[in-house]
Batch of 2 targets.
Target 1
Amino acid sequence: MNTRLTILLGSTLALGLALGLAGAAQARELTVVSWGGAYQKAQNEVYFAPFKAAGNKMIDESWDGGVGVLRAKVQGGNAGWDVVQVESDELQLGCEEGLYETLDFSKIGGKDAYIPDAVNKCGVGAILYDFVLGYDKDKIAAANAPKGWADFFDTTKYPGKRALRLGAKTNLEIALMADGVAPADVYNVLKTPAGVDRAFKKLDTIKKDLVFWKSGAQPPQFLASGEVVMTSVYNGRIDAANHDDHRNFGIVWNQALYTLDSWVILKGSPNTAEAYKFLDFVGQAKNQAKLPNFIAYGVTNKAATPLIDPKRLPDLPTAPDNIKNAIPISTAFWLENNDRLTERFNKWAAQN
Amino acid sequence: MALQGMDGAAARALRRDHSRAERRRRLQAIGLVAPLFLFLLFTFVGPIADMLRRSVVDTDLAAIWPRTAAAMHAWDGAGLPPDSAFNALGEDIRDSADAGRVAVAAQRLNYPILGGRSLVMGMARLAGALDGKPPPQGWKAAFLDADPSWGNRDTWVAIRRASGPVTDYFLLNALDLRKDAAGHLHHAPDGIFLSILWRTFSVSGLVTLFALLLGYPLAYVMSHSSRRVAGILTLFVLLPFWTSLLVRTAAWIVLLQDQGIVNKALIAIGLIDHPVRLMFNRVGVVVAMVHVLLPFMVLPLAAVMRGIRPETVRAARSLGAPPWTAFRRIYVPQTMPGVGAGVLLVFISAIGYYITPALVGGADDQMLSYFIAFYTNETVNWGLASALAVVLLGATAVLSMVYARVVSGRGALVG
């Protein structure tokens, strides 16, 4: 096909789409986009349905992430989405690229209402979740329970295989903490070449006992089948295995790595007033406090924690005892170094 | 000679009619294949061409920092660039930060410069605090105050090379090569991709070999047994085709893990005391991949074997050849087209494998596709992802051409 025809066809198509969408944009209701699945079901119970019941109009959609998707939405004249829940690197990248509105915290309860990690120029934290050490309590007695990542590397006390996420991200932090680096200093050490060497050297000590998981569903399976004695895992997966599959898995909250998903308002949204109303609603402590009943994520309003069912609180990353020695995964560090350190990780993996 | 005798006009009319009919037939043929052609163009040729383009075209930086790109093209590359280049970059960083585009440029410079992202973003923060005025001490001094790396020639050479419109950075990177500031090529000591390319081909070769060793006898039995037995065998070969790849791989995890069926059976019959590691290593990858790809070997082999006339082997036997010789000298050469098709199908499919090694392999069993996916999805380094894909495509093309020559040479020998 000749190029001119392609361009003609393409532009006709684009024009038609743009006209259609522009028409839709004027009339459309507030559209909130989240991650789908069990999480969005919980959000619907706790946030969306009550928000609508209070007389507001909104619809919810789901997406799979990727800053490229948001870039296309915003640069294409904001096609249909207003409020989106994003992961930490999408928050940072999109904010630097100007894809989000700068958040006016005075409209959503003020910065002081939220935990410090949840306050960002372009977004407000929605949930906080952990990367923890998971093990099977049926196989490791309570008296002998692991207490931190140092135990993960102790193959004499806990013989057997252990699983980590395939790649460099999170594993280097874990190795440094196991080697005695205080959680607060992890990224300062990791910023130096010597720190990276130290992390890989520590990983070397258990290399022959290590296996790697690729998808978040694998670690609980490995624990259940007895394939590994310990694993790094998302806290929500352990909670789900315990509640839905009646497993007896344990979590070591000490030295956990946490990250947040945040709400952002897409630049150029025609519904910013409604968007702020929604964010104010989902940011209120009394509403947030209900989310953990459905799913084991921590919430971001400081006043929410005392309102959470005390029986449920110990399962949450934001419980005071659980978060006191945890650190956030550094988005800035990994945006800058993921390529190089992943190559280094693979070089390391190929050496015998 | 008769035609020559005909008068010129009639001959011309005949030729015209003939060529008109020919043209109509050609148009009809084109019309029939046009849908397929368009489909392939949009789903196959287009994306591949775009991928090839992305591995060398490098216009991100120049689009965001036009003044800098112009200054870099004017710079001869010796020593530090002139003050005007510092000014251009300073103004470009400030304006691109205002436009929310500076992060894209920062990411591009992060590839060749260690810490390049924070170098640029730090400068963007500084420039943003100036309220649109040039810094009091001048841009050059402001850069050098902010970070001494700005006084490093390597930094500027990297910016110059990233200023487009084309780059060899990604392709060189995919081949473990680096260009130093003077323009000389070096082997990168921390490069991993050549060894991963080798790993990709050796795993695929191993899988192809096992598929051939297992598939050949099976195809033989299939094509030399009764219709009923052949039908049942074909069904068993085809069965895996109807199950999703993910499900089959998950099934292998259940079979191969330490507490899995295979290990339990081996322990039960007393062959081993401790579970053998069958998964999270090369063994698991090869086993699972052979299973998934076996039909691609068996089906073309069986098709070719069914067409071989049994008389040829019988004739060889009646002329005194022992069974093995008759099989080796008469039967096997006739199956070579099937072997060729099967080997090529399995090998080419295996080269692109991604999910199976990720799920049943260890950290050192990941093949090139894993890295292409990693750079595409996780770090959005599409230049490098495209360059790796180009290397894979090129290596595969060369291999299949070599293979085609070998097979056709063999075929000529047999013929």
Target 2
Amino acid sequence: MSTLAHVFEAAGLATVVLSSVLEMAQKCEPPRALHGEFPLGRPLGKPLDALFQRDVLDRALALLDAPSGPVLEVYPVEIVADETPLACALPPRFDPDVPPAVDEARGIRKAYDRSVTARGTTSVSRKISADEVPDMLSKLYRILDGDAWDELGFPDDDVRSVAQDIRTYYEEAALEMADGPPPEGRQVEAWFFERTEAGALILAARQKMKEVKAPFPQWFYMAPGQRGRITS
Amino acid sequence: MAEDRQTGDQMMRAHAATLPVPVFEHAAFVTPPILRQATVAIVTSAALHCADDEGFSAGDTSFRAIQREQKNLVLGHWSPNFDRTGVVLDLNVVFPIDRLEEMANEGVIGAVAPTHYSFAGNQPDDVATLRYDTGPTVAQALRAEGVDVVILTPV
């Protein structure tokens, strides 16, 4: 973002960056930046809080009054991401003849569909559709069984993207299943990796792919860096 | 969180702080028109795109245009290392288009730009394409539509 700010200013546009990494803004020195120490992925701070978002924007646009730059200010309110798993009950085991994650994924399909209806869109789109989630989970089990990850028929052998789509499927469903206030940053991530069969399966498959020396980006980016204890 | 370890955001911020940044020896500083007369656009690195558009790939250096009235956007960013649910709950937490519309209606800003833009945040470390190709291309397009001020939102 700071690079783009410099490029845009050189072209005659005034810019304001909503910074999310303070050290980066300090090093790159965009002409104007308001740093928000907010959960990564939420540069306006709080979803569904128009007043808070408006205050962030007002303070950011006020930097346009500065006669010279670079100008870097820090938003006065800090929001720390909460890694406590979201309280979100999963459906009970339904079909004992299929692996747990496959059963689980089928069980939350209606909640996922409600999310798509409510929001008019889905981000389950990198490599697979929602219909393919159970089959892809079956393939992840086969990685644990020792089958070659690049011979299982993942689209473009892109296990990383499939893992992202599976996570997104679960996260969008969770927002329909959970009660209470909007989840804090990373609460749904924590729920997925610590409470669901699919999340545990992805972490186990990731470990297995590392052990069989799959390319680093393919296994590492299947989950956030801090998730799971990757051992050599 | 039972384990004594870095949180995801701590880990990512510490990593990002080590990344190289390009040097701009002659940084420009544009003085915009007064805000109530300025046309404002959003440019985000969240890899947002319309469902009908081509998705972003890993390390993608291209961009997508987002028309002012488009709200049902897909989050195409490839990194697993940030919260993805905030933008599902409320697009404005990344792409504050409704806030801009309110500010235009109140006369705080002059106008909302007709077209906004999205890049992928996980660019190659040298950001050469962004700096010399796609960035200037988007800047020209924004200027051509009368934009004065750009708000840049990261992911």
